[in-house]
Amino acid sequence: MPQPTNWPTLIKGDAANRVQYRTCSQKAAWRVVNNHQSAWGALFSADGAKALFTPGARLYNAKKATQGEPHFVVIWEAGDDWALMTNGTQVALVDVEVIMELDALHDAEMTGPGEIRQRLQALFQNAPKRGLSEYEAALSQT
Q: Mean pLDDT over residues 3-12, rounded?
């Protein structure tokens, strides 16, 4: 059974454990972002997920021009078992092992958001066995 996430540390941040952040968008299938010190910043700062999904925001406009429409963001702290996945309107908890599998697949062969969606669906086929539920909320907009 996974150990519980240390939510106070994740939200407030810890300089020793930077928050991990991945995005999937129309033109950039899987992008690593390493500029967040806390989950709060990764979600709500001017460079966070909320701004990425808010039309008219500086980040939305800049990233849409180069990467197309954002599909989803995944946020977690190194060492945690669970990650937050959001499409800007919904949030789901996802097993970090799944995200690590996507990182490995991306490094090896993935080419676009459609393939990421296919890989996510394949990885989530056994979601109940992994202890996951409600994963489709974050995927419904991709």
A: 48
